Amino acid sequence: MAEAATSFLNWNWAGEHVQAELTNGEYVSAESTLLLAGPSRLDMLTQVDGGGGTPDISFVKSQLYPIGLVQNFMMAQNRFLTRLFEIGSKRAYFVTGRLAVNFQLNRIIFFGPSLIRLLYALAPDNEGFGGNAFKFVPNGQPGASLDVKLRPPKAYADLFPSKYMVPAGYGGTDGKDNRDFFINLASDLLQIPFGLGAIFKDAKNRPYGACYLQEALLEAHSMGVDANNVVIAEGCNGQCDRVEPIQLISAS
């Protein structure tokens, strides 16, 4: 007996599934989804190594920064349609209009880079380019900080002159302030667009698809504190120019 219907001719609604993949664990879930912050356009990632025409994969990886602790990600594309009628007919014509893309991110606040800081992961801190923009302490052990040096591509680094540096944030003691707390939505830094990538895999760790939100800008930031909740959440809303699909190649 067939596992699923292949056409309406062998359709058995009483004893078979229409689509059998779901029973085999081939679904895509939030567990196998990764969000990445990067430059505003994909062509800023297609750099070559030494001018030989070969893509430098390590260079591309260093420009896509994973965003963790995200509880909610939403992306919506809206294309405006105009309906036209004509005299003498009941039928209608449709004219496609402009495209608008909106996105939303919500995550938990912890002692580390805030959400805006992560979205602008390639922006330098006030120590300059190639500085220690992020400082993590693995396993919560003091003295074991891991410095992550971010080196933006030249085309993107030119967008961050010294006048766009954002003042350090606060949140630490004994001279260990959290330099990665970005909260000022009116900062000139946020006038520069960024990119947001999403990679999707199925439950068997096979690549399903990926996309990249190009020329993204923030239009709203929210942060709320509730006495009944232990953690504090923050969220960002924004718009982007378009959603660019990316073809993934499986290593298996």
Can you walk through the features of this model?
- The protein is mostly beta strands.
- The chain has one domain (24-246).
- It contains 3 helices and 10 strands.
- The chain has helices spanning 57-62, 115-119, 154-157; strands at residues 28-38, 65-66, 70-85, 92-108, 132-136, 146-149, 194-202, 207-224, 233-240, 242-246.
- The strands form 2 sheets. Strands 1, 2, 3, 4, 7, 8, 9 and 10 form an 8-stranded antiparallel sheet that branches.
- Mean pLDDT is 75; it is low at 48-59, 126-153 and 162-175.
- Which consecutive residue ranges, at least 5 long each, have pLDDT under 50? 48-59, 126-153, 162-175
Number of helices: 3
Q: Strand count, sense and closure of the main sheet?
A: 8 strands, antiparallel
What is the beta-strand fraction?
35-45%
Mean pLDDT figure:
75
Query: Roughly how many Å apart are the termini?
Result: 31 Å
Backbone CA Rg: 23 Å
- Helix-strand topology string: EHEEEHEEHEEEE
How many strand units?
10
Question: Structurally, how many domains make up the residues?
Answer: 1
Helical proportion?
under 10%
Structural class: mainly beta
The shape, in one word, is extended
